[in-house]
Amino acid sequence: MVRQALPIDDVLPDIVSTLRQGNRLVLAAPPGAGKTTRVPLALLEPGAGIDGRILVLEPRRIAARAAAERMASQLGEAIGATVGLSTRIDRRVSPKTRIEIITDGLFTRRILADPSLEGVGAVLFDEFHERSLTIDLALALACETQAVFNSALKLVVMSATLETERVCAALDAPLIESAGRMFPVEGRYAGRPPDRLEPHLAKIIRRALREEEGSILVFLPGAAEIRRVGDALAGDSPPNSSVHPLFGALSPAEQDAAIRPAPDGHRKIVLATDIAESALTIDGVRIVIDAGLARLPEAQGRNGRTQLVTVRAALSSVDQRRGRAGRTAPGVCYRLWDEPETRGLAKHVTPEILRADLAGLALSLADWGERDPARLTWLDPPPPGGWRGACDRLVALGALDPDGRLTERGRALAALPLPPEHAALIVSQPDAAQKARAAEIAALMSERGIGGQGTDLGQRLAAFRRDKSQRGEALRRQARRWGGGTKASGSPALCLARAWPHALARRRPGDDPRYITAGGAAGRLDPADPLSSSPWLVIADSIGSASSPRITLAAPISEPDALAITPPETVETATFDPATRSFIARRVKRIGAIILSETPLPAPSGETARLAILDAIEKHGFAAIGAEGGLASLLARIAMLRQVFGEPWPDWIADGLAETVSEWLGPTLGTGTTLPKPQAVCDAIIAGLPWPLPQELKTLAPGQIPLPSGRSAPVTYTGDQAPLVEARVQELFGDAPHPSIASGRVPVTLSLLSPARRQVALTKDLPGFWNGGYQDMAKDMRAQYPKHDWPDDPASARAHPGHTKAQILQTRS
Question: What's the pTM value of the predicted model, to 2 decimals?
Answer without folding.
Answer: 0.74
